[in-house]
């Protein structure tokens, strides 16, 4: 189990974690999430923190609360595709920002990434 860090509110870290689980396919469209209480126990956090993460994801259209049934991953594929693209963009943005801070040009970043992906395809990365 990964630890939460102090640099970002815990509810946002939990929301990010759920985002990643949905993007990776670990959580599927229409799948029920653990109750707020069970999720709090699982991650050792206050249920109010879990509720805040769920509310944030519901506001973004990623989760849906069904009265008397619980919280589910949305079945709206357009929202899930949009979130997947958003997560990809955020990760690329962070990567490029770090590389630029290290002094690499766009061409060097691109060639390095291509080399890495090619090596990965060969099992070298």
TrEMBL record:
Keywords: DNA-binding, Transcription, Transcription regulation
Stretches assigned to the HTH gntR-type domain: 8-76
Highest rank taxon of the organism: Bacteria
SMART domains membership: HTH_GNTR
Alphabetical list of InterPro entries matching this protein: Tscrpt_reg_HTH_GntR (IPR000524), WH-like_DNA-bd_sf (IPR036388), WH_DNA-bd_sf (IPR036390)
Pfam families: GntR
Molecular-function GO term, any one: DNA-binding transcription factor activity
Protein name per UniProt: GntR family transcriptional regulator
């Amino acid at each position: 189990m990964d630890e939460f860090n102090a640099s970002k509110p815990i509810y946002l870290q939990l929301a990010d974690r759920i985002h990643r689980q949905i993007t990776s396919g670990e959580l599927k469209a229409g799948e029920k999430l653990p109750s707020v209480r069970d999720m709090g126990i699982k991650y050792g956090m206050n249920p109010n923190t879990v509720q805040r993460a769920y509310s944030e994801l519901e506001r973004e259209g990623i989760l849906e609360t069904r009265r008397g049934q619980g919280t589910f991953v949305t079945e709206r594929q357009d929202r899930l595709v949009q979130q997947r693209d958003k997560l990809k963009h955020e990760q690329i943005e962070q990567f490029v920002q770090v590389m630029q801070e290290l002094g690499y040009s766009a061409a060097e970043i691109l060639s390095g990434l291509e080399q890495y992906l090619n090596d990965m395809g060969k099992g070298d990365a």
